[in-house]
């Protein structure tokens, strides 16, 4: 079952509120990957047979990006043409955004990020709106960001929440350039697309007096 969520203005408004600030964080291709890279690690080893550099207890910073992980593996140090894989308690900070996950794989070409794959149980994503205390929160088992296509895919029980607005689905696909989001479900009762939208001047749900 495919729910393309173009039915009501309320749905479109809710999706815009939820998606726009979150995916602003994903524009990491605008960062300068030629900046100096600072790496701190408990241990570093080189696997010549597999052409791999392995870091344990890793903290990596470059420009506005910082990454912490129990382990990091890189095919080469320079980001001109390389792949990096981070595993174990991974924390990625990009500007006002923060990702916590079990693993993250970043693929680079000509000093540009080409693809990012993030997984977790679930992976958590938080972004603070500039000039406010509001946080956009998302979680999913997997995120796949195709930079050239400008498409971000949340899968495995994806949920995006901001304030009183929330959308959840087994699959959320966001097209950055077209600013369009599609939500898919299998049609099962516990796997359908769900949207909670609270108007700006809406009435908050009263708390349970028995609590």
Could you describe the 3D structure shown?
- With 211 residues, the protein is mainly beta.
- The chain has a single domain, classed as lipopolysaccharide transport protein A fold.
- 8% of the residues lie in helices and 56% in strands.
- The protein has one helix and 13 strands; from the N terminus they run βαββββββββββββ.
- Strands 1, 2, 3, 4, 5, 6, 7, 8, 9, 10, 11, 12 and 13 form a 13-stranded antiparallel beta sheet that branches.
- It is elongated, with a radius of gyration of 19 Å.
- The N terminus is likely disordered.
Question: pLDDT average, as an integer?
Answer: 76
Looking at the structure, the CATH topology is: lipopolysaccharide transport protein A fold
Structural class: mainly beta
Compute the separation of the termini in Å.
Answer: 38 Å
Q: How many structural units, i.e. domains?
A: 1
CATH class value = Mainly Beta
| SS element count, helices | 1
What's the architecture, going by CATH?
A: Sandwich
The overall strand count is: 13
Largest sheet, in brief, is: 13 strands, antiparallel
| Helix-strand sequence | EHEEEEEEEEEEEE
General shape: elongated
Task: Evaluate the radius of gyration.
Answer: 19 Å
């Amino acid at each position: 079952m495919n729910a393309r969520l173009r039915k009501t203005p309320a749905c479109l408004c809710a999706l815009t509120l939820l998606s726009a600030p979150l995916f602003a964080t994903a524009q990491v291709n605008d960062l300068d990957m030629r900046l100096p890279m600072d790496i701190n690690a408990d241990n570093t080893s080189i696997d010549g047979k597999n052409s791999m550099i392995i870091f344990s207890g890793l903290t990596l910073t470059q420009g506005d990006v910082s990454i912490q992980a129990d382990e990091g593996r890189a095919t080469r140090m320079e980001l001109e043409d390389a792949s990096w894989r981070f595993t174990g308690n991974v924390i990625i900070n990009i500007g006002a955004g923060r990702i916590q996950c079990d693993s993250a794989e970043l693929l680079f070409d000509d000093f540009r990020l080409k693809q990012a794959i993030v997984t977790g149980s679930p992976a958590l994503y938080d972004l603070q709106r500039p000039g406010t205390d509001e946080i956009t929160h998302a979680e999913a088992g997997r995120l796949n960001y195709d930079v050239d296509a400008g498409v971000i895919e949340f899968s495995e029980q994806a949920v995006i929440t901001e304030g009183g607005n929330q959308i959840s689905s087994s699959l959320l696909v966001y097209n950055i350039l077209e600013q369009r989001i599609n939500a898919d479900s299998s049609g099962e009762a516990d796997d359908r697309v769900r949207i909670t939208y609270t108007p700006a001047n809406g009435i908050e749900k009263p708390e349970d007096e028995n609590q």
